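Lab channel / #folding
Pinned by the channel admin:
"Please post every new chain as: sequence first, then the structure tokens as a reply. Keep commentary short and put observations after the output so the thread stays searchable."

First post following the new format, from NK:
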Amino acid sequence: QIEQNMNPSPTHHPPLLKTLFLDIGGVLLTNGWDHDARQRAATTFDLDYAELDERHHLTFDTYEEGKLTLDDYLARVIFYQPRPFTVEDFKGYLFAQSQPYPEMLRLFRDLKARYGLKVAAISNEGRELTVYRIQQFNLDTLFDAFISSCFVHYRKPDPDIYHMALDVTQATPQESLYIDDRAMFVDIAKGLGFQGLQHTNYDATRDALATWGLVRDWDSARHVA
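Reply from TO:
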């Protein structure tokens, strides 16, 4: 539950937070390669989903930690036997599963610009997918740093990835808010001293951010006490 700390008014108040740490998949973009995407791929490419999923779970953590290339991952999960389609065909399909949530991207861009916030990603993702998503959706214009599992070789729920995020950004957990769609990862951040928010939908997250004093100019009138 989010505790009401203040009632923002249309005037520009200093925020209660200095740094936002955001998950990417499930918050700003669709998940890059989740079970729904894998099921769609199995249907599209006529693959045995149960076998694909078992192989995926045996090796995907290693890929997300940056210890395998995407080609290595696909060789273990898809191309361990001859296929009637190419690696490039499959990669193209995999990358195309990434789609933006435009209203969420606009929200955080606006809040960053208005309040001078530092914004960093804490994300579990493989290198090629991470780079594609950064470039395709111009995430480097939103984020000041990417603490991505493929770059730092830790992945959530390892507490070290959160500690590294604080070190990289020189932020304090008390003045930081961590936002993720997965409750466990939010709980871990809270246990390390961060403030935390589980993202469920745009309206709920926008309204929750207002309780920390983060309100866009045109939203201010909605939150007058």
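NK: The chain has two domains: 19-31+101-223, 35-96.
TO: also worth noting, The CA atoms of residues 26 and 136 lie 16 Å apart.
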